[in-house]
Amino acid sequence: MNEYDWYYGCGLVIPECIENCWILDLGSGSGRDCYILCKLVGENGHVTGIDMTETQVEVAKKYIDHHMNKLNYQNPNVNFILGHIEELGAVGLKDESYNLVISNCVVNLSPDKRAVLREAYRVLKAGGEMYFSDVYASRDLPKGIRKNRILWGECLGGALWWKDLYKIAEDVGFLPPRLVTASQISIHNKELENVVGDCQFVSATFRLFKIPQDDSAQRCEVIYNGGITGHEKELEFDANYKFKQGEVMEVDKETATILQNSRFATKFLICPVGQKKPVPENCSPEKVKVWFSLKQH
Length: 297
Description:
Layout: E1 22-26, H1 32-41, E2 46-51, H2 54-62, H3 64-71, E3 78-82, E4 98-104, H4 113-123, E5 124-137, H5 143-146, H6 149-153, E6 160-161, H7 162-172, E7 178-185, H8 190-196, E8 201-209, E9 220-224, E10 234-236, E11 242-244, E12 248-251, H9 253-261, E13 268-272, H10 285-288
Parallel strand pairs: 1-2, 1-4, 2-3, 4-5, 5-6
Antiparallel strand pairs: 5-8, 7-8, 9-12, 9-13, 10-11
């Protein structure tokens, strides 16, 4: 295993199908995740890391030449910026510049989460995605929890009420958030348990897509063609949809809209329910299954 392969088992927030993508990492720290992404996007992709801590940004910059030499890239495909994730325009990040915005447990530390999501939406290209992991609360947190230094440092005091995430995301223009994974957080400290009371916390990963609502969208049948690195046979898209290569799955109209208008479009055969379906070029008859059912004839 080399220094770019270990991410597969380490729980980093890295989405699928990112070859040649331009990616912005919010809260990039010392650049660890960014350098993993450098390999995954390839020499024609690009990664920008932004962090508010000057020492972290300087550390990240020191290793650019090392990693570019390791990857044998002619030109660097990464840069690091000192700045605040609520004010991306202040550091020169332009509208519709990125295919993906990612973040790993950083948004909860922001005092203005609406500004973070609004800026992420602004810099994303049409069809782009914010794919991020963070901590969420079961209710709106009272001041006693938000002001607790220990809980804040543990990424709990700044946790967003999950209902507020849905409201803010849709207010700034994203389609409704799509849950990918979630796990409950346990607090093994009696004093802190007394402070939080009956409030519960979860660590969750969400996908937010920058795609306009489409009133003409329809339910569709889709076939995953495979071929996404690391997900050649099966793509676990979110908590509701797991696509197996060559198999037909019916999806709701919102999911169909996302697949048709995002970087996943070339990875699927998509057809409105009830219409005659095209011949899948890369799928054997055995894999196609009901795609060629008698109801077509």
